[in-house]
Amino acid sequence: MRESGGRGQGPGRGGAGAGSQGGPGAVRRTPAGPGRPGRQGGAGRPSPDEPPRRNRPDDAGRRGAPDDAPRPRKDEPDRPEGRQARPDDPFDLPRGLTGAGAQESRRVRSEDTVPQPRAGAQRRGPRQDSRQGPPQGPPRSDPRRQGRRPPPPPRPPRPPLVLRLGNPRRRINIGLIGMTFILSIFAGRLIQLQGLDSKVYEARAAQQRVVSETIKAKRGSITDVNGHELAVTVEAREIAIDPSKVPADKRAHVAAVVAKELNKPPAEIAAKLAKTTSRYELLARDVDPLVADRLLEQELPTVTTKKTYRRTYPAGDLAGTLIGFVGDDGTGLEGVEQMRNSVLAGRDGKQSMEQGRDGQRIPMTRSQRQAPIEGRDVRLTIDRDIQWAAQKAITEQVAASGALSGTVIVMDVKTAQIVAMANAPELDLNNWQKAPDRSFVNRAVAEVFEPGSTNKVITAAAAIEAGAVTPETTFKVADHIRCADQTLKDSHPHKTEVMTFKQIVETSSNVGTIQAARRIGDQGLYTMLKNFGFGARPGLGLPGEEAGLLPDHTTWSGTQRCTVAYGQGVSVTALQTASVYQAIANGGVRVQPQIVAGMTDENGRFVAGKPGRQTRVVSQNTADEIAAMLEGAVSAEGTGTLAAIPGYRVAGKTGTANRYDQQLGRYNGYTASFVGFAPADKPELVVLAVVQKPAKDIYGGHIAAPVFKDVMTFAIKSRKIPPTGPSASPARIGAGH
């Protein structure tokens, strides 16, 4: 029998004893337990005839094994008695087993849940130096520790991991609930789209597919009383371009060609072509069709034209402020264009069609077209020739007198139709965009001023109509009169003298007029002023038409009770003043002024307008007596001598009044005026001339009377009005007022 821990004696591997001197064949310790006998020859290898011995920890002590002999691990279980050693037995692993055998040994030990060696534990080399300390390995048996608590039993082997499958029914139920919820959302949305909101989305789809285009209606024309066109609509083109499709290398060429044809600055066209993100840029409106055709012949990329209409004014500035103009959208903005816009504009048509994404029409799809209704023509009461004469006369006088502005109105006595309504300066309708805003105002109906002595006919009519005076009633007239706390003076110094009421009117005496007004009182004068239309709009309907200013007689101040009698303290327009003289010339019957003679119907036939409303203001006798007094004012001894027309009897009245400046808030300058009618014995026309703030002279007899004469002379010749009977007897004295 061999002893545990014997050394090998041959070239083979020997036993693993303390201080062994074996060479390369020395026995190595396995990491899992004490050393095992070597696999090759030597005394350490068991005899085939000897049964394998158990390697128990207490054998070494009983047999006198040395202290450094390898001992079994405490946690290594005892091999059963009588068990044969096998190469794959973890209890009988040979001590010198290395390589594949050692790996197999480790695998077997791992499967038997034998604890693995400590980290860092290494197999023993062939030989260890005694200076390195005792070899590492399992703890040795110590007799001194045998009385201590035995080591705990080894842990039971860990059961292998088992994959547990969940309950499939629960997963299926959860999935079905989730799918039901999601499908219900889709179903609700589908019901909303296809049921509740189907009409809304159908309309939106139609809007994307169906394109509606407005077909502009042709605007009606404005003509004078004889059918001469003052405003007309002609065919035109709109020129547009798509900058996003113009190549960069051709922009300069396109801009130069377009600017030349449209007569626009090249920089303006180049700026629009530079907007490469834009799909549409309007280059010009109201282009002549010939110019548009010539531009298309240049074969410029993406240049398009659209048929439209352009408003033109053949007469330029003739009756400009009266006619007015239209904006870029074709809507009337001033004058008759605005007043009759609904009639002139007509009704636009509409065309709808289906198109694709690229803007091309989809063939064989629906298309609807509603034809436009053209506007109707409006015929004015204006006579183009007389309008030209009135405009020429007032423009020349405003320039000659250095005045601020001027107005002329020519009115038919019987119908109160406006034959001419001229302002100076006048508005050029073909270039209205460049004119200042103040040029848009029709001064004949919008400018308010104090009439002055032209208002004395109302005082005379009130006094005669009330029976307070007659033309032959005499008054002792001085050149001044006390009124409340002020002294009012006559137009010129003179000695106190006895004058008839007729002479007072003819010489335009302020003092004599105040004396006559005191006989009828404030109430009587105020009522007559209202009957003649003061304080109310005349009724033409033109934009900016004013009613003037007529304070109630109960609010008149002490001096105002006197000044109103001769036209200071009240404010009127030129049209209101002309309307007063129309009533006198028409035998005391005031007719509402008219500016529109009629319009065409849907079939193009002319339909005359309704006559103006008639109101009797004074009796025929009163009107005749006043007309006779006015005729004397134009005689050689009156104040309106410069208004006389050879061969015709003319009746009229001069006016000179302080001009109230609204911007300054005080009186500044004068208003010179003259208004009259002819022939005096059979009146046909009334002419009013007003000059605002003349610089070289202030009297109406000197500034406005010549304008009246020129316009009236032209008008009666244009209408072929023959002269009438002999002239009335001249007045006895005259005055410069």
TrEMBL record:
Residue ranges with Pro residues bias: 149-160
Main location: membrane
Localization terms from the record: Membrane
Domain Penicillin-binding protein dimerisation: start-end pairs: 215-362
Compositional bias annotation for Gly residues: 1-25, 35-44
Keyword tags: Membrane, Transmembrane, Transmembrane helix
Basic and acidic residues bias locations: 47-89, 347-360
Annotated TM spans: 172-191
Annotated Penicillin-binding protein transpeptidase domain residues: 406-712
Keyword Transmembrane helix belongs to the record: yes
InterPro entries to which the protein is assigned, alphabetical: Beta-lactam/transpept, Beta-lactam/transpept-like, PBP_dimer, PBP_dimer_sf, PCN-bd_Tpept
Keyword Transmembrane belongs to the record: yes
Region (Disordered) location: 1-165, 346-370
Similarity field: Belongs to the transpeptidase family.
Protein name, entry field: Penicillin-binding transpeptidase domain-containing protein
Organism: Nonomuraea roseola
